[in-house]
């Protein structure tokens, strides 16, 4: 209908409006309403362009990862009251879209059949009432021109913050122990903390068991070959590999730098995640919120 009204508006200098409306089979009142709303439509277009600029800035700051929900949340955090459907429309019109997760994963887990597995203390309950009480860990591989770079990480289930990580050209037991040492050195583990993983040989090793005992924590393991028993850690790898922005690195040193930057400056401190009670917060903000609530309760 707007195309017809624009045509009538363009031709009214040559012909009367009434016969033009008859020829185009459009009511004159429809054309008059269209003319009356031109200023309002122009104002909406200008507002949408301004919103598109703000969305673009947020999208670029998120490494082009944020979709509609997190863009909307970031706008509201900045004091911009905006409807989610409007954000969705503007992003669609300007070709702005977040990353979608890739599917398929080649596993590194090799179970140690000689080691007795620890019990599953998580039971697929990937929630925690406070930081430092339940963490999950896993190993993934990063492809580089020099060969694989193995990355081990420990994730706090209360905040979804990466509290410890380690990188090497191997995935022996010391890789996961080094990552756990980092978490302990930062003071992110409480006594009795449940440390959950799969049944890979690195996690069933005596070296890791000894370290967990020294920290006065409890070890937990999922079932062999069942990724759902460690779904929170698997989900983090999917996020990292999709949102880090690189698929293949020229060397291990570059990959290390990019992973450090992603974890420390983006994932822990800037990446928004929806909390069931507090809405969209970064992992760092979530930890601070828990600490504030504990201080008030005390």
Mean pLDDT: 87
Question: Do you know the CATH architecture of the largest domain?
Answer: 2-Layer Sandwich
What Rg is obtained from the alpha carbons, in whole angstroms? 27 Å
In spatial order, strands of the major sheet run 3-2-1-4-5
GO molecular function: nucleic acid binding
Function: Involved in the transposition of the insertion sequence.
Pfam families: HTH_21 (PF13276), rve (PF00665)
Protein name: Transposase InsO and inactivated derivatives
Structure description:
The chain is an alpha/beta fold and 298 residues long. It folds into two domains: 1-94, no CATH class; 134-297, Nucleotidyltransferase, domain 5. Helix content is 46%, strand content 14%. It has helices spanning 2-11, 17-23, 28-36, 38-61, 68-77, 84-93, 173-185, 206-214, 231-243, 252-267, 283-297; strands spanning 134-144, 147-156, 162-168, 194-197, 218-221, 273-275, 279-281. Helix 1 (2-11) packs across helix 3 and helix 5 crosses helix 6. The mean pLDDT is 87.
Based on the model shown, name its key terms:
single chain; 298 residues; alpha/beta; Nucleotidyltransferase, domain 5; 2 domains; five-stranded mixed β-sheet; two-stranded antiparallel sheet; 11 helices; 14% strand; elongated
